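Homework help board

Subject: predicted structure for assignment chain

Our instructor gave us this sequence and asked us to write out the predicted structure in token form, then describe one feature. I got the tokens but I'm not sure how to describe them. Can anyone check?
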Amino acid sequence: KVTTDRRATISGDGTHTEGEATINFADQNAEEHHVQLTLANSYGEHTMEYPVIKVEPTEAIEGIGQDGAGVKTYTVDESLFVEFAESGSYTIEVFNAAGMLMARQDANVNGSEVACISLSQQGVYIVNIYRNGQKYSAAKVVRK
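My token output:
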């Protein structure tokens, strides 16, 4: 059971072990929303209240190209793939969650090409991409 402090549309799906819910608030301009989640089973029920943080859409982080603007990043097994849509001289830097540089690769791209970087450890990585010496894109990837 999910309740909110404002009119909202709630949809969800789940099983006896996991699930998810989506809440769309009628008043999108409100500064803050609160949601109360109640989980119940044969052992009893537990209720928690959560604030919902409103995030405004933005085009990019001050001067950095929007993720996906000419670059796509994804992982397959131990490999990070970076797809470029435009020609140029690129530098790819990969940092782990602690901020440690894990890989750096330069790529001179002619048209649509893909760079591949090995990620030996599972975890969350931040990928910074520079084009012609200027920060071009940033992405977060997960290597499972």
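Reply (TA_rk): Your tokens look well-formed. For the description, you could write something like this. The longest strand covers residues 32-41. That's the kind of observation they're looking for.
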